Amino acid sequence: MSDFPKLDATDRALIVATQGGLPLVARPYQAIGEQVGIAGEEVVRRLQSMLESGVIRRIGAVPNHYAIGWTANGMTVWDVADDRVDELGARVGALDFVTHCYRRPRRLAGTPGAGALPDWPYNLFAMVHGASRAEVADKAAIIATLLGAECRAHEILFSTRILKKSGLRI
Amino acid sequence: MPELDVPQGHSLGSAVDRQIIDKLQGGFPLCERPYAAAAEQLGIDEEELLARLRRLLDAKVLTRFGPMVQVERMGGSFVLAALAVPEARYDEVTALVNALPQVAHNYRREHALNMWFVLATETPAGIAEAIARIERDTGLTVFAFPKEREYFVEMKLAARV
Fold first, then answer.
1. B60·A161 Cβ contact <8 A
2. Nearest partner of B109 among B137, B143, B135, judged by Cα
3. How confident is the model at residue B3 (pLDDT cuts 50, 70, 90)?
4. Measuring CA to CA, which residue among B28, B108, B106 is closest to residue A23?
């Protein structure tokens, strides 16, 4: 099943060495190389190859979205008819203000794993950001219009606090 | 509306900081002196870019500067999960959940399910282990929402302050 690129121990060591951030020095790849025991050129070559294979999505600044003005963060969740969710999910994901869009399992009371959870009928998740809750609500209204009668229920779960945002740590 | 305990309306200080945030969310050069190369594109010098990045990181305007890894592409897993945490235990449970390195990020949200976090592990089995650990440590049931399909992911937002 593995169509994943093979990462060797050195690639993994590079991920571990950089997951907290690149060194803020003139020659950061050389500095990482010294840590991992390879030349700076080899660090560059391996990072390039992991970028190409998608192991690394991108290299750059990861902003705190609240701090740069996106203070309202709404996880919008939708109960969309099963036979339409893939088509509609792709269209919601294509909206320019949606940053993440996924299909996820519904969790209804009485089904395995649902435990004491109140009914959770939502199978489509779309993350929406704004400078205010009203802006997020306006954007959610656009999604509601797009989904039309195929959407039976929805909610917006606003975040009120970032509890942790360290990113991946292996 | 509940208060956010994160910087709001933070002044970025200058148009250069905004440029750094908007232009450097990806595409950081892979060359011997990448800060010098990136600085040139921004019309500043290497030392200034390094100083500004340091300041933006210290002020927590940036949470990180470096590679963003897609753990699934290295054979691992990434799963959204939620807890319904009793209000009186919220801080205690936050500390227990955040203590796990497998918790990549964690948000408080307004809902009966009031804690939403993402588990990222190097192997798919690591997810179940992390969930079991959280359930054991907190005594609460973890509700996992693994993705079934990904329609879109691109978290790049321009600075608007």
1. no
2. B143
3. very low
4. B28
Confidence grade of residue A65 (pLDDT, cut at 50, 70, 90): confident
- What pTM did the predictor assign? 0.87
Asked if pLDDT for residue B87 goes beyond 60, the answer is: yes
In this predicted structure, the answer to whether residue A102 has a pLDDT above a threshold of 80 is: yes
Phi, psi of A83 (to 5 degrees): -80, -5
The whole-angstrom separation of Cα B26 and Cα A50 is 14
Residue of B130, B119, B135 whose CA lies nearest to B85: B135
* Phi, psi dihedrals of residue B153, rounded to the nearest 5°: -145, 120
Query: Hey, which residues 66-105 in chain B have their CB within 8 Å of chain A?
Result: 66-71, 73-76, 80, 84, 94, 97-98, 101-105
Residue of A51, A66, A125 with shortest CB distance to B4:
A66
Beta-carbon separation of B62 and A162 below 8 A: no
Q: Which residues on adjacent β-strands are paired with residue A102?
A: A125, B150
- Between positions 57 and 86 of A, the ones with CB within 8 A of B are 57-71, 73, 75, 86
Both tokens of residue B50? 């390094």
pLDDT the model gives residue A5 = 66
